[in-house]
Amino acid sequence: MLITADELAAIKRQAVAEYPNECCGVILVRGAERRHVPCRNVQDQMHARDPLTFPRTARNAYYMDPLDALRLNRLLDEGFGFAVIYHSHPNAGAYFSETDRAQALIKGEPAYPGAVYVVLSVVGQQVRGVAAYRWDAERRVFERADDGDLDAGESRASRRLLAAAERRIPGGVNSPVRAFRSVGGEPRFVARAEGAHVWDADGHPYIDFVGSWGPLILGHAPAAVVEAVTAAARRGTSYGAPTAHEVELASAITATYPSMEMVRLVSSGTEAAMSAIRVARGATGRDVLVKFDGCYHGHADSLLVKAGSGGATFGIPDSRGVPSALAALTLTLPFNDLAAVRDLFAARGAEIAALIVEPVAGNMGVVPPAPGFLDGLRAITAQHGALLIFDEVITGFRLAYGGAQELYRVRPDLTCLGKIIGGGLPVGAYGGRRDVMDHVAPLGAVYQAGTLSGNPLAVAAGLATLAALADRKGYARLEALGARLERGLCDAADKAGVPFTVNRVGSMLTGFFCAGPVRDYAGAKAADTARYARFYHAMLDRGVYLAPSQFEAAFVSLAHSDDDVDRASRAAVDAMAAAV
Which of 19, 257, 296, 536 is catalytic? Predict the structure, then answer.
């Protein structure tokens, strides 16, 4: 027995009562006797008294009342031992964090080897997840101790799957944002999808505004795409050899994107961006890359950097495992700050191989370019002999058939495209001017290869998707749906009196919980993430699936109906009230 139902019920009441602060406590045992000892969190009082000694940090989110510490010591003297040590994560997931692990160990050894650590996720006035962890002495790690069965609820199957996944997959997920850690609670494991809807492992339906993070512009499992993939699979799933359909897809892309005179298919957006940067460096003979704060271009080492103390400092690693020397070749600037770009290129232009940008940012939430920003980037890079790379992994074929470069009438030197050209299957592409792409092997000395590049299933799905979009009539419908959703969210926020601003470009949008405007990463970070977490779960409870992060985009598809959007808008009225 890890914990009794009565103990858990009492702990949940305590966690909700102390929200938005962290709660903590223990369950002690002596023989058959169990004693539940809640421990009062006096962090607010201690911080108010001495903020330097008692700062508000993740590591110092909890300070035990000295009277409770005295009571615990007396019980230990009486022969009790620790069976359960519990704490809550306000507005975060129920997981044993790096900080939690560090505090449970003394010089690498567990302070209480036999104890089970129970973590609760609390969002608003509800416990959204409970998980237990125990020290594995042989493997010397903390491992999941329960089977997702500590707390009853409507997401039993997803909870069981998460517990099983955590034993074999880091964090239980194959991409970090899926873990729900920035909104709290536990991820829903998806069992199937169709049109504008997904169903979780427990059978609950949701109106889906994630759309596999953007590429499912036709919705889930559109008949033409499914038929194309099925027919392709019958002919074989992978060849490692060229096919006629690869040529057809490349021709469709280059015909639509005049800036892409030549194109190379790859397997992901990350690979496309990584390859484009390598080509830019090879073509220019320069090493330095410029990117913008809040723009994400995949998880290649050169791109996982954050800014230093100034706006144009050399990057430092934003992830362990990224060599400092490599990260130092990437410079970061504020998005939409053309003056900062001019100053940087005036000082270091001869060293810069390329500037890479999401023409419409989608990974700090949606942030459109300021008037003249993209034109200015085009002029500055050309003046200094650097290449301009548009990362259109999200925006390509979504904002317009010709992507953001068609919408804003700016022609980059290199372009990256993502899964939309594969109907949501794993695929990407990069391409650009012929003289630049001539540097790619086997024509030139810039090496890039991939066994699954141009995979026949992804290519078939992509051709079917682009064929459905080719008449361009769907984009007016996408614009109307996006505007309808924007109005619904704004009206809901107005009724609740919640500070809220929506950034939208066509069928992609983000509602930021702040008064706005949001023009860059600093503005995005001003949003109230705790309020978004409450809103997110209130929408999920009402059957609306949004991105589990304030800093992501929502997407409408051609499978969404007016009724889908109106139902989401009605749900938002109640959800906004819950988020106050």
Answer: 296
12 is catalytic: no
Alpha-carbon separation of residue 548 from 178, 184, 270, 388 (angstroms): 7, 9, 21, 32
The tens place of each residue's pLDDT in the chain, 580 residues long, gives 799 999 999 999 999 999 998 999 999 999 999 999 999 887 777 767 777 776 765 555 667 788 888 999 999 999 999 999 999 999 999 999 999 999 999 988 999 999 999 999 999 989 999 999 999 999 999 999 999 999 877 779 999 999 999 999 999 999 999 999 999 999 999 999 999 999 999 999 999 999 999 999 999 999 999 999 999 999 999 999 999 999 999 999 999 999 999 999 999 999 999 999 999 999 999 999 999 999 999 988 878 876 433 333 345 567 888 888 888 899 999 999 999 999 999 999 999 999 999 999 999 999 999 999 999 999 999 999 999 999 999 999 999 999 999 999 999 999 999 999 999 999 999 999 999 999 999 999 999 999 999 999 999 999 999 999 999 999 999 999 999 999 999 999 999 999 999 999 999 999 999 998 999 999 999 999 999 999 999 999 999 999 999 999 999 999 999 999 999 999 999 999 999 8
Contact 422, 459 (CB under 8 A): yes
Candidate list 100, 146, 151, 391, residue with the active-site label: 391
CB distance 383 to 416 below 8 Å = no
Active site residue 107: no
Q: In the structure encoding, which two tokens stand for residue 146, read together?
A: 């329960």
pTM of the model: 0.93
Task: Give yes or no: 419 in active site.
Answer: yes
Nearest-angstrom CA–CA distance, 541 and 543: 6
Other CB atoms within a 10 A radius of the CB of residue 392 amount to 28
Active-site position among 419, 520, 532, 536: 419
CB of 195 closer than 8 Å to CB of 220: yes
